[in-house]
Specification:
The chain has a single domain, classed as Divalent-metal-dependent TIM barrel enzymes (TIM Barrel, Alpha-Beta Barrel), CATH 3.20.20.150. Helix 4 runs parallel beside helix 5. The strands form three sheets. The chain has a five-stranded parallel sheet, with helices on one face. 41% of the residues lie in helices and 14% in strands. It is built from ten helices and eleven strands. The chain is of the alpha/beta class. InterPro entries: IolE/XylAMocC-like, Xyl_isomerase-like_sf, Xyl_isomerase-like_TIM-brl. This is TIM barrel protein.
Length: 276
């Protein structure tokens, strides 16, 4: 397995993210898609930037409002555009994030049928470029619950639509992450690792509270409520010889981006027994 990290906590500061993550020993990343596509017409410049810090691109985020049939053509073209950039920079994974906001009552079977048709088309377009599309269930979107995930996995073509489990989003969506991962183990092509913030928190562990900011839903690996589950999940992935990316992702740092990624690095090395 290979370890990557997401630069989300650095916001628009791609250069700072590369510098600091490199200092911590990371060698692969996801970044915001719009930041990467700023270099769409300057591929060599982007590659030189990544090479300067010893990084490779593990994936970029794509997807869209798959249930909106009027957006079908745009979704297919947009994801193909992102896939071409990924491929040009040595990557072969695109994360298919579903659209939001979530509608009251969730997504109906008829809507999921539309979503599956669109996703199949977009994933096939990415596959033809040489990039695997990985469905990522996500809270507060059209694909959040076990019914929505299972329906999409049933209706989509396993040749083109792969699976990107996110430990925290599966849990917050009411699922048992390890159970879901076992059920779809043959379709896993990318993984997001994140922890869920505990209800009882203090300023010493989470400095964000000292500024009277609200605690984010997700937190650094090892500081949350599903740390042990993450250890079990990675243990299972080792058992089945999963050899793809494990990407550390924190939506919002509870201290500083550098410190957050350092905490995650220590968890990856000490608890998960993985090297960067």
């Amino acid at each position: 397995m290979k370890v990557s990290c997401h630069f989300i906590t650095w916001g628009e500061e791609l250069l700072t993210a590369l510098e600091e993550a490199s200092d911590l020993g990371y060698q692969a990343c996801e970044t915001f898609t719009h930041l990467a596509l700023n270099y769409e017409d300057r591929i060599e410049e982007f590659q030189e930037l990544m090479n300067k810090y010893g990084f490779q691109l593990s994936a970029l985020y794509g997807g869209g409002n798959f249930t909106d049939i009027e957006k079908r053509d745009y979704i297919v073209k947009r994801n193909a555009q992102v896939a071409r950039f990924i491929k040009a920079n040595g990557g072969d994974r695109i994360v298919f994030g579903p659209g939001g906001p979530r509608r009251e009552g969730g997504t109906t079977l008829e809507e999921l049928k539309i979503a599956a048709e669109t996703m199949n088309l977009a994933a096939k377009a990415c596959d033809e470029i040489g990039v695997k599309a990985c469905l990522h269930p996500h809270i507060n979107t059209e694909i959040e619950t076990v019914f929505e995930l299972d329906t999409m996995m049933e209706l989509t073509d396993p040749k083109y639509v792969h699976f990107c489990p996110d430990t925290a989003h599966l849990k917050r969506g009411g699922m048992d992450p390890l159970e879901v991962i076992k059920r779809y183990s043959d379709r896993i092509a990318y993984v997001h690792l994140k922890d869920i913030s505990p209800e009882e928190v203090d300023e010493q562990t989470f400095p964000i509270l000292s500024g009277n900011e609200q605690m984010p839903i997700f937190c650094e690996l090892g500081l949350g409520t599903i740390s042990d589950e993450i250890v079990d999940i990675v243990g299972y992935l080792k058992e089945i010889n999963y050899d793809g990316w494990l990407t550390v992702e924190i939506d919002k740092s509870t201290s500083t981006p550098y410190k957050s990624l350092e905490i995650c690095r220590n968890f990856v090395q000490n608890r998960l027994k993985l090297e960067l």
